[in-house]
Design brief:
ten-stranded mixed beta sheet, BirA Bifunctional Protein, domain 2, Rossmann fold, alpha+beta, 3 domains, D-tyrosyl-trna(Tyr) Deacylase, Chain: A
Amino acid sequence: MKILLLHSDFIEFEPTKKAIKSAEEWKEGKKRVEDCLVVFLSVEKRDEARPARMAEDLVREIEKVAAQVKAAKIVLYPYVHLTSTPSKPDVAQKVMSEAEKLLNRKKYKAYHAPFGWYKMFNIKVKGHPLSELSREFAEVPGSAKQEDEISGALAEEEKVKSTWHIMTPDGKLHPADRFDYKGNENLKKFYQYEHSKARSSKIDPPHIKLMRQMELVDFECGSDPGNLRFYPKGRLMKGLLERWISDKTARYGAMEVETPIMYDYEHPALKDYLERFPARQYVVESLKRRFFLRFSACFGQFLMNSCMNISYKDLPMKMFELTRYSFRLEKSGELAGLRRLRAFTMPDLHTLCRDMKSAKDEFSSQFKYGMDCLKDLGFEPAEYEAAVRFTQDFWKEKANKDWVASLAKLFRRPILIEMWDRRFAYFDPKFEFNFVDCLDKAAALTTVQIDHENGKRYNILYTDKDNKRKHPLILHCSPPGAIERIMYALLEKAHKDICAKKNPLFPMWLSPTQVRVCPVSDAYNKFAMEVAGKLEGIRADVDDRVESIGRKIRDAEMEWVPLIVVVGEKEKKSGKLAVRFRDTGKVKEMKPEEMADYVKNRTKGFPFQPLPLPMQLSRRPTFVG
C-alpha cells in the first residue's frame, strides 16, 4: 500500500462521473472538511490476501502521523494513481471502508471521498515540515508485518475452547488437571505446555549448543532466521534420514512423487486451503503475480490427484513426497534451533480413503507405523508422549470412543486428549507423538490427521462400486516428523543422557563416524590407515594428528564415536584390536572383520553413506570457531 499524508487547512471534493461500474452510491454532492489530515491511498495487488490486516496497518500509520500533527479529523481519499499495480476495486474499497470504521471507533472523526468516481478537488496544505509525508508498507517476506499475517484457521484456533483429559490404556478418561501423573512426569509437562500454549522461550534449548559443538548445523546470518546451514556431518545425518524414511515409506506402500515448492496465491482451491491451514505463509512476487511457498506437499499432491482416474479398488491409495523444503513463517520468538524452523524437510504422506471406517483403519495403521519409525531412531514409547485431538461432535459416537480407546491400548501408556468445541480447520481427528525436551517444551514428531474438506475442495474423485463419482477422505501423515526436528530430538535426548551421567550416542547407522582408529604415535599411522581401509561399508576414520593418545580418545568421546580402536605395536603384531564400546564403556578384543560384522549387524536394513570428511583428521578443516 502506498499513501500520501497531507496536513491541510481544508479539502473539498466533488464527484463528476463514475469511473467503474461498482462505484459506490454518492448523494452528498460537494463536500468540504477543514483542519484535517488528508490521506491519499492506493491499495496494491500485493495487499489483496489480507484486506482486514492492511486496514489495520493503514490506521496504525495514520495514527502515528495524526499524533505528530495533532489532527482530529481524517479524510481518506482513494487515489489509484499512486501505484502501477493496483488491487481489485472491491479489495481497495474494503480496506478503505474498514479503516474508516476503525478510525471512527477511536478518537477521530473520519470521512472518505467517494470510491470509484472521477472527482474535482481543492486542497490547501498547511506547509509546516510534517505537513507532507508519504508511506509505503506491505507484507514483505520476513518482515514483522508478514509475521502477523495469519490464516483464518490459525485465527479460529486461537478462539477454540478445549477441554483436556488423560486417557489410560484401559480406555478410561480422566480430567487432565486432576490426573495422578506419578511415573508419567513428562506427560504432565506435555499437558502443561499444550494447555498454556506458551511457545516462545527466553533461553536457548541445549541442542543448539550441541549442534554447533558437534559441527552438525549452524545459523545462517545471510538468510532469513529459521533457515539453517548444514556442515558435512550434519548433512550426512540429514541425508541418511531422508533416504531412510523415503525407502521405509515406499515399503509401506506409498508412491513417491515430486511437486513444486511455489504456488499461485490466486488459484481458487489453493487460496481457500490457505485459510483452512493453521500456519503463516511466505509470500513472494514475480511478474506482478503473488505466489506462496508451500508449507507441505498437500498442494502439489492434491492437484495431481484431481487429474487422476481413481477406482475404489485403488483405495486406500498412498502418495509420498519428501519436501526439500517446506516453509512456514513462524514467529521470530518461537524459532528455536532445529525444533522450530521456517524452512524444513517434511516427509509428507497422503492417503485417500473411501469412507470414515477406512480412514480410521488407516489412521490406526499409521499410528503403529509412527511408533515403528521412532523405534528405528532409538526412541522407545516411554521417551515420547501421545496426543489425540478431536471435536466434541466426533466424540459423541460410541464407535469413535471405542476407536480412540484402541489407540491408547496400542500405546500402552496414558495419552493426552484435547477435545475442541468445534472444528477450526480441515481435520478431525488428529494425533501426534511429541518429544518433551530439556526446557519442558514439546515438539510434534509423528502426526496424522483425517481431512474432511480437501477431497471436495480440489475436486478429487474416485469411482465407487455403484459407479458413482465420490470425494475421498484424506489422511495427512508425517511418519517421523520433519527431518530437522528428528535431529533436534536426538540431540535433546543426548543432553538428557549427559545430565543423567550417561554417555550420549546417536544410533549406529546415523553416527557420522562409526569407528575411530587412534594410533599411539606417528609410527603407526600407516597401520591405522590399513585397519580403517579393511572396514568396507563402515564410516571409519583415523586420528593421525600430532596429539597424545589420551587427547585422541577424549576427542573421539566428545564426538560420540561408538567404537574407538587404539593401535600400536601389540595390535600390529597380533592382528587383534582393543575396541572400546561407548554405550557400555567396556573394552573387547576383536579382529577387524569381527568389528566390521558387529557394526553391519547393528546397521542392517538402514541406508549407508561414506564418510562426509577426509578419513585423516589432520586433513579436516574446522567449521565452527
